[in-house]
Specification:
mainly alpha
């Protein structure tokens, strides 16, 4: 509102101050709307990150399950091969009684086909080590996910505290403005009574 053509009066000053307060209210409402939109955006980002972590965890879980199934099949195959080797050894022992010389020749042939114990132990140790590594990786991924969610939660808390401080600051300013305006109105009224 611009200065009135016939000068300032208490009524025109009142209207002017009411227009200024209404303009401040509109600006504050616009700011609150922008803060709500920011909060909703951050919540949506948090949900999206949570969904991605869930998907990644599920993928890791599926990969781990597939690897464990593969290790189970490999160990079953190794066990079946070992059982077959044991059967052959028993048959060879029975034939030994039939002829010692023939057994010695067969024993030399069989020794070349058996899986050495040190190699079997090395393979089993390797498989156990892989299983341990998979378990450690899963635990590490879970810890990373927890840490990421904790950081996001802390950032959200800090942002909410900042918004609350800004709101309290704005309320304080509005109170100060109201008190200042009331003081000016009182001073103007006293001045009009003493002058007029």
């Amino acid at each position: 509102m611009s200065e009135p053509a016939d000068g300032w009066t208490v009524d025109t000053l009142r209207l002017y101050l009411l227009d200024m307060l209404a303009a401040l209210d509109r600006r504050n409402e616009d700011r609150w709307a922008a803060n709500d939109a920011s909060r909703l955006y951050l919540l949506e980002q948090l949900r999206t990150a949570d969904a991605r972590l869930d998907q990644r965890f599920d993928t890791i879980q599926e990969m781990t399950d597939r690897q464990l199934i593969g290790l189970d099949k490999a160990s079953s195959s190794a066990l079946a091969a070992a059982q077959a080797a044991i059967t052959k050894a028993e048959q060879a022992a029975e034939r030994r009684f039939e002829g010692v010389n023939e057994f010695r020749g067969q024993l030399a042939d069989q020794a070349a086909t058996f899986l050495p114990r040190s190699e079997a132990n090395a393979r089993i140790a390797s498989a156990l080590e892989k299983i341990d590594n998979i378990a450690e990786n899963r635990s590490h991924d879970r810890n990373l996910a927890r840490e990421s969610l904790d950081r996001l939660d802390n950032r959200m808390d800090e942002r909410l505290k900042d918004l609350e401080r800004a709101a309290a600051n704005m309320q304080g300013r509005l109170w100060a403005l109201g008190v200042s305006i009331a003081g000016i109105v009182i001073i103007v009224n006293i001045a009009i009574r003493f002058i007029g």
